[in-house]
């Protein structure tokens, strides 16, 4: 068992959250990172115990064109600011991992600047891939080179060069020594050289006990990357896609099928993969925007926190904010936010309250971190499963239908079970519990003694019983800050402690809004993955978008992703 096995992550894109200029003019240091101090308390309050933050280091624009791996981006502050931030997180019991952009550098990186100046005589000519002094590019360098994703502002590092490998390993050592970080998320890990990743893993094992390496991987057999020799975990894009489309199409079969497929990779065995699960991130649309029926947010987040893997919340999504991808910019996915705009959200905002409750439940139920998974009930609109670890046992049930649904589930032990989100109790009868799940809801059931013995669960029960309704306002098209769920508490609250979003009308055509088969959904997901890769690096033309949309061939799309 390691700290990351029990982690609940909070993902921060700092250049966006802190409203840094999109272009780095290298005209001095602005100490924006200091504004993250209040967020540490917020992260703790919603039940997260780890932060993934990045990109952080000096770059030209969006953060992935690194110009100095050992210097905090001057738009955010200086190294002392970053050291203090990590220290404050640690004092609050929060682990911190950085974004490691090691596949490519920016054009202002020292090695590339030397290459431009000295050309064939540069000692760094072999630091980059396929440098060709008979070629040229749009920058009129008088030579060409391999890039990342088709963008020459991102120069691809030659990871097979021992000097490059040693340099990046020294960067990791520097980050640990200087900032005391607990791990690294490897950008574009699915195109990193495997021997290079083995060197990174060896360095991780050296620098700090339980130092965690998590890689960005879109599709494929995750066990290729996650093993004793390379990475500890990768991003679970398979489950990400299933979570939103499984709710949009009222199709829990897709989610359950994805979980079974991951099981084949070792993805939900106690001794298998511990994948990094998410509902959205800085490269994809906000889940609030992506999901059709906003009432489905509650069962979706219940699944995020209870299915095998390590859950993560992208900053702002706990407030239920919008974020739609635009043709030439990801800015709307990475907005500036102020906590002053979300005061008392854990009490007044049903999405925030649900996530805070789930975070605390997750940290106090070891079965959710270490337990095996067993499917119990599965229909298009209802889904139930158990998680069991040692003496720990819990039952999870969700319902994406507007109407309540009753089911019987196998119980372990005698006495009563308590629902950790609603507070309902039910007696065990003949080894079963008979439960009813409200429409567009879900719950987690444990033996009542387990619930009573968990201090944080008692704190959750202290929340005044209330029926919470919510109407969501669209993000203003004027470009103002994203709006969160506006909530009001009913004066005639029910006895049960429930969280319930206002149901939005669902038209008949919306029951399968995408109109896609499962296979077509996979193609759509792959196309979105390609676009996400491309959009990270700069504007996408209409022709580039059409080229992606016209490619409906699974293997071709997979190869396209791997080519980045």
**Spatial order of strands in the largest sheet:** 11-10-9-5-2-1-13-12
- Given this structure, which CATH class of the domain at 3-101 and 159-336 is correct? Alpha Beta
Percent range of helical residues:
25-40%
Second rung of CATH, namely the architecture of the domain at 3-101 and 159-336: Alpha-Beta Barrel
CATH topology of the domain at 3-101 and 159-336: TIM Barrel
Average per-residue pLDDT, rounded, comes to 86
What separation lies between the terminal Cα atoms?
34 Å
Backbone CA Rg: 24 Å
Number of helices, counting only DSSP H or I runs of 4 residues or more = 18
Strand elements, count: 23
Strand content: 15-25%
Low-confidence stretches: 455-480, 486-515
Any idea what the CATH superfamily of the domain at 3-101 and 159-336 is called?
Answer: Glycosidases
What report would you give on this structure?
The protein is an alpha/beta fold and 564 residues long. The strands form six sheets. The protein has an eight-stranded parallel β-sheet. Helix 5 packs parallel to helix 6, helix 7 packs antiparallel against helix 8 and helix 12 packs antiparallel against helix 15. The longest helix is centred in the N-terminal third of the chain and has 18 residues.
Which helices and strands appear, and what pairs or packs with what?
Elements: E1 9-12, H1 14-17, H2 37-45, E2 50-53, E3 57-59, E4 66-72, H3 79-91, E5 95-100, E6 104-105, H4 110-118, E7 147-148, E8 151-156, H5 162-179, E9 183-186, H6 194-207, E10 212-215, E11 233-234, H7 237-248, H8 252-264, E12 276-278, H9 287-290, H10 297-306, E13 310-314, H11 345-348, H12 350-364, H13 366-370, E14 372-378, E15 382-389, E16 392-399, E17 405-410, E18 416-419, E19 425-427, E20 432-437, E21 441-447, H14 448-452, H15 455-461, E22 468-472, E23 485-489, H16 518-535, H17 542-550, H18 554-563
Parallel strand pairs: 1-2, 1-13, 2-5, 5-9, 9-10, 10-11, 12-13
Antiparallel strand pairs: 3-4, 6-8, 7-8, 14-15, 15-16, 16-21, 17-20, 18-19, 18-21, 22-23
């Amino acid at each position: 068992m390691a700290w990351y096995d029990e982690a609940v992550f909070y993902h921060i894109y700092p250049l966006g959250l802190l409203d840094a200029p999109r272009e780095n003019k290298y005209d001095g240091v602005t100490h924006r990172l200091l504004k993250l101090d209040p967020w540490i308390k917020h992260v703790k309050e919603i039940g997260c115990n780890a932060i993934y933050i990045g990109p952080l280091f000096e770059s030209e624009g969006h953060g992935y064109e690194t110009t100095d791996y050992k210097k905090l981006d001057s738009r955010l502050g200086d190294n002392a600011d970053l050291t203090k931030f990590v220290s404050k997180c640690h004092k609050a019991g929060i682990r911190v991992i950085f974004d490691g952009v090691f596949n490519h550098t920016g054009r202002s990186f020292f090695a590339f600047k030397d290459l431009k100046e000295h050309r064939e005589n540069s000692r760094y000519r072999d630091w980059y891939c396929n440098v060709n002094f008979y070629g040229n590019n749009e920058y009129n360098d008088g030579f060409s080179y391999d890039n990342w994703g088709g963008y020459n502002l991102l120069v691809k590092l030659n990871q097979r060069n021992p000097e490059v490998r040693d340099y990046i390993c020294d960067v990791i050592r520097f980050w640990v020594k200087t900032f005391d970080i607990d791990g690294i998320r490897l950008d574009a890990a699915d195109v990193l050289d495997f021997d290079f990743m083995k060197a990174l893993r060896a360095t991780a094992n050296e620098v700090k006990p339980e130092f965690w390496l998590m890689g960005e991987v879109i599709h494929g057999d995750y066990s290729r990357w996650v093993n004793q020799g390379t990475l500890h975990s990768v991003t679970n894009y398979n489950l990400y896609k299933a979570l939103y489309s499984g709710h949009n199409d009222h199709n829990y079969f897709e989610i359950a099928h994805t979980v079974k497929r991951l099981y084949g990779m070792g993805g939900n065995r106690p001794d298998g993969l511990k994948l990094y699960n998410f509902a959205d991130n800085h490269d994809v649309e906000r889940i609030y925007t992506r999901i059709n029926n906003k009432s489905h947010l509650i069962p979706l987040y219940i699944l995020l926190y209870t299915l095998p893997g390590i859950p993560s919340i992208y900053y702002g999504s706990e407030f239920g904010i919008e974020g739609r991808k635009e043709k030439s910019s990801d800015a709307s996915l990475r907005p500036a936010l102020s906590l002053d705009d979300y005061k008392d959200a854990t009490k007044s905002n049903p999405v925030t309250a649900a996530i805070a409750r789930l975070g605390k439940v997750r940290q106090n139920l070891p079965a959710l971190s270490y337990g095996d998974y067993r499917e119990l009930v599965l229909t298009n609109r209802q889904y139930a499963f158990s998680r069991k670890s040692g003496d720990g046992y819990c039952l999870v049930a969700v319902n994406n239908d507007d109407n309540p649904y009753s089911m019987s589930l196998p119980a372990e032990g005698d006495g009563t079970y308590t629902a950790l989100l609603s507070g309902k109790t039910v007696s065990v009868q003949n080894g079963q519990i008979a439960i009813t799940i409200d429409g567009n809801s879900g719950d987690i059931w444990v033996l009542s003694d387990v619930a009573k013995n968990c201090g944080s669960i008692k704190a959750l029960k202290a929340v005044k019983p209330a029926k919470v309704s919510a109407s969501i306002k669209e993000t203003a098209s004027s470009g103002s800050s994203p709006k969160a769920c506006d909530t009001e508490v009913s004066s005639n609250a029910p006895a049960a402690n429930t969280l319930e979003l206002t149901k939005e009308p669902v038209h008949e055509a919306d029951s399968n809004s995408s109109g896609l088969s499962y296979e077509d959904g996979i193609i759509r997901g792959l196309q979105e993955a390609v676009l996400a890769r491309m959009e990270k690096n700069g504007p996408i033309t209409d022709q580039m978008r059409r080229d992606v949309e016209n490619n409906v061939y699974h293997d071709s799309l997979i190869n396209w992703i791997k080519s980045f």
